Every structure is written in C-alpha cells, then in structure tokens.
Automatic annotation (TrEMBL):
GO molecular function: transaminase activity
Coiled-coil spans in chain: none
Gene giving rise to this polypeptide: LOC101861604
Domain of life: Eukaryota
Pathway, per record: Amino-acid degradation; L-alanine degradation via transaminase pathway; pyruvate from L-alanine: step 1/1
Protein name: alanine transaminase
All copies of domain Aminotransferase class I/classII large, residue ranges: 106-475
Enzyme class: transferase
Length: 501
C-alpha cells in the first residue's frame, strides 16, 4: 500500500512543481510598473556602460588609440582622483572605530568632534539607528551652519538628514504628488537642461515635467518670460505644484544672481508654487563677481508675503570641496511648512528608519569644520582651498579650450563641477546618427568615446533647446589628466568635422 501511494504523491508533487515552473515570471517587462520603465538616467546610461566594456577590453590587452578611459561623465570627485579631507576622515574614522581615541597621532579636535557625535548615538555607536530626522547634534550643527551662512536663524526641528540629497529631493517631491491622473497630474517645473534625477523622479511618480529653458546666450540665466511661457503651456495638461531650481547649476555651471532669485520667488508666489532649491553646489562658486545666495536668505530678506512661502533647500556631502559621494550624506531644510504636513513627512521617513549614520557624521564635519586656532584648522583650510582653486582653474581650462575650437562654444563655468559646451554637429553627421537610430549628440559622444576613451554625457540626457547639441563633461580629472583629455578631444573634434563636413 505504502509503495503504491508513494509514487502517486510524488507524481502529484512533480506536477505541482511542473505547473509552478511553467507559470513563468510573476513580474514581466510587460506587466511591471510602467512608471519605473519610463525612468531615464543618462549620467549612467549606455555610453557609460560602453566605457566600462572598453576598460575591460583594454585590460584584456586589446590595442586602441588610447590606453585608458577618462570618466568625465559623473560628478564623482574621489573616483576621479581627489584626495579625501583628512579631518573629515579622522572624525568619521574615530566614530566608526572608537579604539582610535587612544591613538596619539590623531588630533584632539577630531577626537572631540567624534566624541560629541557618538554621545548623540544610541549606545555611543555609529552602528545604531538614529532618530528618523537624524542625530540631534548633527541637526543642531546644520542649523548653526545655516544661521552663520545666511545671518538668519535656522531651527534644528526643520532639518532632516537623508541618504544623499537625492533621497531628500525624492521624499519632498513625493509630498507634492497631490493629483495623479490625466490632466490633473501634478506638474513640476524643472530647468532644461537639468540634472536627470528630476526627470527620473517625475517619471517614476507619474507626474508631469514642466521644462523651462535656461538661456544659453545669456550664460544659462533664467528669464521670467520663459517661466511664464512654460507654465502657461503646461497648465492645460497638469496642475503645477512646484518649481525646482538648481543653483549653482548642473549641467550648466551657472550661478544665479540675486535678482534672478528674487524674480523666481515672486513668480512662485504669484503662481502658488512650492520652491525646491537644490543648493548642493553652494561651495562651488568660482567666477569673479559671482556669489552664492541661498533661496532662504533672499526669500526672508524680501519680507512678507515672500518670507512666508514654503521652501525646501537641499544640501549634500557629495559636492563642494569634500566630494564624499559614497558616504551618502545629505539634508533638507524645510521652511514655512504646514506643521501637519511636516508631521506626515516625519512619519513617511520614519518608515525607512533613518539615513546612513556614517553619512550624518560626515555631514557634521561639513557644517562644523575646524575653526581658526584649532589643531586641524591649517591643514583643513589648505586642503579645502586647494580643491576649490583647482576646480576654478580647471573650469577656465575647459571653457577656454572649447571656445578655441571651431564649431564649439561654451559658457563660463561660474560654479558647480561641469561644462556644457554647444557643438555644431554637421548635417552629414546628423544623417549618419539617424541611420544608426541615435540622437546626433549621442552619436558624437559615442564616437568620442570609441576614438579617445573620453566618456562624457550627451546633452539630450539633460534636455536642451531643440536643434542645439551639447555634451556635459565634468571638470574633475586632475589638471594634467584634464589637459591630456582636452588634447585628445581637440584631435577628435577636428577629425569628426573633416569626416562629416
Ligand atoms: C544638482 C544635483 N542635485 C543632487 C545631486 C545628488 O547628490 P547626492 O549624492 O547627495 O545624492 C546631484 C549629484 O550629482 C546633483 O548634481
């Protein structure tokens, strides 16, 4: 009996298994969330994937016209050779490994900072969760930093730490998704060209991007007429909720004037828009006469009714002179937010427990660096000034080279870490691109990579005025490498023009 029954059970079981196997995947490309499929992020797009393949080919001994790939596609400072700031690493290092308190070679001010951070951590360990909004001391230090920066008091209760600025931007944008369908979708105004986190998030949230064009002929400034035009054109298709501003700009490298900022604030007030100010490059201002003005300072100084407007301002450890992208430190300051909305925001981020506490510790050093008279001050200042002055020099190098090449023009890199030159792509090259199913600037960048190993991102990945072509390059490679890169670039461009003119 037992023998007879056993094979039957086995048969049934194998049928069940067979059925389960033949069922196929629950989640397929056809039924998965369509909004996720709509996400595009050129900074890590197909050209960058190809760059990785080329690196492997070179490592395998394949012969090419170049011996290495120069990655100028992403604002990843340390990956491009920038040295970490000693003080920042000492503080985070001691926090992560408290035995280092006993190391006499580490400076007292780094130990004091680490001690203060650890006192704010559960069990005095960086390995414990923090409050959802972040460690109390870090929020206090951020508030103090903002107060000193703007001369206007900041409240730690308005500061929320995040895993990179990206997470905070996505969290705040999520609050604005008040209407989701058809012509009632939430509309979000974004600069064109823009940093693709914005279009990617808008696509994922099924919102409507409202692109306002930056004026290339006027150093990528922002005009009120263009804000009006883009908003009026979008109104029949969506409900505009917010305006995003990136200052200093990525990919365009401009620094907004105070007048520009005041105009944007008045416009946002008139149109009842929430302001999202991406100020992650606030330390990266190089051009003479340019200055960083925070939206919070300008809005507050404009007085009522503007000083009562809602604003989210974002900051990061990834940029500036520190370039600590991998620590994923960031924060948002929420200003004039309805207390009930703030409570909901806190609840929503609580569901993710907290941002990376190592990133929070790194952020603390950014906002509370060594002061004059402290043991680490001189070294810190030297390292900070060196990075910023080299970035300024590299910005000038890149723009002057591009402007000296026929068929190219490039606005000054006033700030941030990128140049966004304009290229005249000849008709013949545009046709060749079309035949390959590529956008003309993609075709150009693809050829540039294959011929020189220089990896940059086509302008179409950021958005650009129709009929114009660009690419974005970072100004991050070390001066010598950048010089070499520009040499390779010039040769390529001349040959490309000869081939397609
Ligand atoms: C304008 C802008 N905002 C936000 C981010 C995201 O920074 P994080 O590394 O802090 O997420 C970047 C990164 O390049 C950026 O350029």
């Amino acid at each position: 009996m037992f023998r007879l029954r056993a094979p039957t059970t086995m048969l049934c079981k194998s049928k069940v298994v067979e059925k389960a196997l033949s069922r196929g995947k629950v989640l397929t490309i056809d039924n998965m969330n369509p909004h996720v499929k709509n996400i595009e992020y050129a900074v890590r797009g197909p050209i960058v994937i190809r760059a990785g393949e080329i690196e492997k080919e070179l490592n395998a001994g394949e012969k090419k016209n170049f011996t290495d790939v120069i990655r100028a596609n992403i604002g990843d400072c340390h990956a491009t050779g920038q040295e970490p700031l000693t003080f920042l690493r000492q503080v985070v290092g001691i926090c992560a490994y408290p035995k280092l308190f006993e190391d006499p070679s580490l400076p007292e001010d780094a130990k004091q900072r680490a001690d203060r951070i650890l006192n704010s951590c559960g069990g005095r360990s960086l390995g414990s969760y923090s409050d959802s909004a972040g460690l109390t001391v870090v929020r206090e230090d951020i508030a103090q930093y903002i107060t000193e920066r703007d001369g206007i008091p900041a409240d730690p209760a308005n500061i929320f730490l995040s895993t990179g600025a990206s997470e905070a931007i996505r969290n705040v944008m999520k609050l604005l998704m008040t209407t989701l369908e058809g012509n009632d979708k939430s509309g979000v105004m974004i600069p064109i060209p823009q940093y693709p986190l914005y279009t990617a998030t808008i696509a994922e949230y099924n919102a409507e991007p409202i692109g306002y064009l930056l004026d290339e002929s006027n150093n990528w400034s922002l005009s009120l007429d263009e804000l009006e035009r883009s908003l009026q054109e979008a109104k029949p298709h969506c409900k505009p909720k917010a305006i995003c501003i990136i200052n200093p700009g990525n990919p365009t490298g401009q620094v907004l004037t105070r007048q520009n900022i005041e105009d944007i604030i008045r416009f946002a007030h008139k149109e009842n828009l929430f302001i999202m100010a991406d100020e992650v490059y606030q330390h990266n201002v190089y051009a003479e006469g340019s200055q960083f003005h925070s939206f919070k300072k300008v809005l507050t100084e404009m007085g009522p009714p503007y000083s009562e407007m809602e604003l989210a301002s974002f900051m990061s450890t990834s940029k500036g002179y520190m370039g600590e992208c991998g620590f994923r430190g960031g924060y948002v300051e929420l200003i004039n937010i309805d207390p009930q909305v703030k409570a909901m925001f806190t609840k929503a981020i609580s569901a993710k427990l907290c941002s990376a506490v190592t990133g929070q510790a790194a952020m603390d050093v950014v906002v509370n660096p060594p002061r004059e008279g402290e043991p680490s001050y001189e070294l810190f200042k030297t390292q900070k000034d060196t990075v910023l002055s080299q970035l300024a020099e590299k910005g000038r190098m890149v723009t002057s080279t591009f402007n000296s090449i026929e068929g190219m023009s490039c606005n000054a890199v006033q700030g941030a870490m990128y140049a966004f030159p304009n290229i005249d792509i000849p008709k013949k090259a545009q046709e060749a691109a079309k035949a390959k199913g590529m956008a003309p600037d993609f075709f150009y960048c693809y050829n540039l990579l294959e011929s020189t190993g220089m990896c940059v991102v086509p302008g179409s990945g950021f958005g650009q005025k129709e009929g114009t072509f660009h690419f974005r390059t970072t100004i991050l490679p070390p001066v010598q490498k950048l010089g070499e890169m520009l040499g390779r670039f010039r040769d390529f461009h001349v040959k490309f023009m000869e081939q397609y003119s």
